[in-house]
């Protein structure tokens, strides 16, 4: 007898949580529509129209707070009736930060980093058909399209960033080879030695720049599971070798300047 009452109470609370969550979504769509209507048609028209819209918004916001309270009460009851039940995968903790959407609001993060609240992603019960199904499906279709666009944009940005890094290293390598090829351009023997030394210095500088960039970027690519072919060319050297080369190069230049003096 008692077990039957517990089961009936559990099903009642599940229905209450489902209806409350549906009301939260419905009221959020209404509030989003009011905000958009105010932005397009009321803003800048005077205090009286703005006050009317604000009063209407506050009315639905109060209803929203009541629906949120009903959902939280139903979930608390379910925690007592069935602490480890399968309902926990669907009826999650509803924080104030979760009561948002559909879509991104003005004070939220950029479109590229926006994450949809879980209230719009949770599955709906089979018997929760309502007259607002078409509106819900339409809003979720728009959110899915935006999320898909964000995924494609981030994938494109990853490809562009990888290509930009490759081009930077390729440019440094080409510039190093270009300076090495300039060593014997001058036929005048009086300045050939100095120009050759300067060309080698520039070539080594660009080579070290390429190695530095490779050592800075390769750990990131490895952590993200991205394969870049140019990282293998710099696997044998280390940033410490580059720092030693810089120090030795500085010492040589100091010795040359001292000898010139």
Automatic annotation (TrEMBL):
Residues 241-261 have a biased composition (Acidic residues). Residues 238-261 are annotated as: Disordered. It comes from the Eukaryota. This is Uncharacterized protein.
């Amino acid at each position: 007898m008692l077990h039957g009452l517990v089961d009936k109470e559990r099903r009642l609370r599940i229905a209450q949580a489902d209806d409350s969550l549906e009301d939260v979504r419905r009221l959020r769509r209404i509030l989003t529509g009011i905000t958009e209507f105010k932005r397009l048609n009321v803003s800048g028209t005077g205090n009286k129209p703005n006050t009317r819209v604000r009063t209407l918004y506050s009315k639905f916001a109060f209803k929203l707070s009541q629906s949120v309270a009903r959902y939280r009460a139903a979930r608390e009851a379910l925690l007592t009736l069935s602490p480890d039940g399968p309902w926990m995968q669907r009826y999650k903790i509803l924080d104030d930060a979760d009561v948002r959407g559909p879509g991104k609001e003005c004070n939220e993060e950029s479109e590229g980093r926006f994450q949809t609240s879980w209230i719009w992603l949770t599955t709906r019960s089979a018997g929760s058909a309502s007259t607002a199904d078409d509106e819900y499906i339409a809003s979720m279709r728009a959110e899915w399209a935006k999320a898909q666009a964000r995924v494609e944009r981030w994938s494109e940005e990853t490809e562009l960033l990888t290509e930009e890094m490759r081009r930077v290293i390729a440019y440094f390598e080409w510039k190093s080879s270009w300076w090495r090829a300039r060593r014997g351009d001058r036929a005048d023997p009086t300045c050939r030695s100095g120009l050759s030394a300067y060309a080698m210095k520039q070539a080594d500088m660009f080579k070290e720049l390429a190695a530095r960039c490779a050592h800075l970027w390769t750990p990131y690519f490895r952590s993200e599971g991205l394969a870049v072919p140019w990282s293998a060319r710099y696997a044998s050297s280390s940033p410490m070798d580059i720092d030693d080369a810089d120090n030795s190069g500085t010492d040589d230049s100091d010795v040359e300047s001292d000898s010139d003096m």
